[in-house]
Amino acid sequence: MSNFHKAQQSAMGLPIEILAWICAASPSRLWVVDSLGEPCYQNQQAEEMGAAMWPAFRQAICLALGFKDWQSLASEECGKPIGATIADPLGSSVRYESLVLTIPGDPVQVLVWILPTSGAEKAARPPLEGPDLTDLQSELVVRAMQYQEMYLREEKLAHTDGLTGVLNRRALVNRLERSLAEAGFAGEPVSFILLDIDHFKRLNDTFGHQTGDQALKGMGVLMKERVRDIDYVGRMGGEEFGVVLPHIPAPAAVNVANRLRAAIEGAELCCTPFTASFGVATTVDGKATADEIYNQADKALYASKHGGRNRVTHFGDLPAESADAPAA
Predict the structure, then answer these.
(1) Do 73 and 37 meet the contact criterion of CB atoms below 8 Å apart?
(2) Which helix (H) or strand (E) holds 138?
(3) pLDDT of 282 strictly over 80
(4) Is residue 62 a contact partner of residue 77, using CB atoms and an 8 Å limit?
(5) Model pTM?
(6) Is 321 in the active site?
């Protein structure tokens, strides 16, 4: 039994013995393949075909399903069983039914069944002894899809702030780092907005922490509704939020921040009105690190706080002595 099967059987709820029987007794060629298309397990039927056959089947499956390569198939069809009829890569008259099922995880693994449906090879298949194979393979697909749903739920919990529903700090910083890397490759700008609820401690002390939580939840909803689908909203901690704006230059980022500022000021997010202060930073070459662009936005936010609050400041508009000073 491979490490893959031992790792996945508990998540899918199938006993190891049943999973092993499916792999060993199946008339299908069965491979467990990584996200790059390299086999890490194959049953006896697959081994009998020879190692050279898998690349040919892999190419035929990608072609039949309309994917340019295996990486695209593994990433786009995660958790979704897909099938296709493929011709024999060697050019014979035999046709095969293929079933591909990607199971998420670290690393991603792909189950591939290939079964002859025509020709002498189909007629030569011996009868099987044991549980009904079709039912077991169907059960395996169902359990794998349930595992996919569980994995996505856990993935969401790991990256989401529990109170507000936006990304947590770690996830937002990861999105910022990814956007900066992509910007460096494509020569696109990236902007980052850092905002902080004004006098949040006073709000908590006056109206209670329940009102403070209500204000934070309302902020998360309001901000997600007012940015693009490709933007990222996250809670940095406490009453501080961040927004990653890919492909947005400085003037447009300031406009986004001002729209958010006005929306917060005019909204009824809790029992009392409140405002927020904003700091914005932009990189145009992708060379800035996530820490650097965060510190720039933090300095601009500090300037907004000390300039009267409920305002937007861009790091590029700070005087030289403020821009060079350590972040608050």
Answers:
(1) no
(2) helix 133-159
(3) yes
(4) no
(5) 0.58
(6) no
